[in-house]
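Exercise 7.
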Amino acid sequence: MPAGKAYYFKAYDRAGNKRTGSIEAPDPRAADAALRQQGLRPYFVLDRRKVKKALLRRKVKRKQLILGLGIAAIGASLIFSSLLVRYAGRERAPNVAQYRKAGILEGYSGMIYTERKEEREFGVKMVQIWESFYPGVVTGVEVRKLMLTIYVTKRVRKIPDNELDMLVSNTVRALHRQFGAAVCTVLVIRGDETLLEATYDSLSRSVHIRSYG
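Solution. The predicted structure, written as tokens, is:
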């Protein structure tokens, strides 16, 4: 007669109560028969070594999952930290109130005011884009890598608000792509009145438009 193996079982007794334990038998059928002879109705009979292996595999997988999630969380935090460091180290454009206080919001009617060649080339491109949509609206631009100031005529009032917002939004995104500032601003000015202020934030990748008119 072959040596018996230990089998883990789950069964119901005559009263309908659940019973669990182990029994030695040469095979699962013999284990099932032995349990029934004891007045039990088994519904689970499995080699105990296989049960232990299955539990061990589940435990190992759980540890691997926890370890993987931990590594992913650490990686995500490192990436976020590096983004914050990059973001903190990049230049940001002050808001319109700060520029007004600094006294640099002066008009340059009919010309492009810049300090560098790349700024001038960008300014020319932006004027061409605006003029292609609304001829005669732009009187001049002032370009810095953090801020683009667009000086306009009273014809700007004829542009629908949604179209003007879209044009300003695309302009401030173009300014960010060109110079890579963490936060950059586009101002639309008529005379000494600031009509619109659009700010692009590279961290949230969003544009915020504020109307003063």
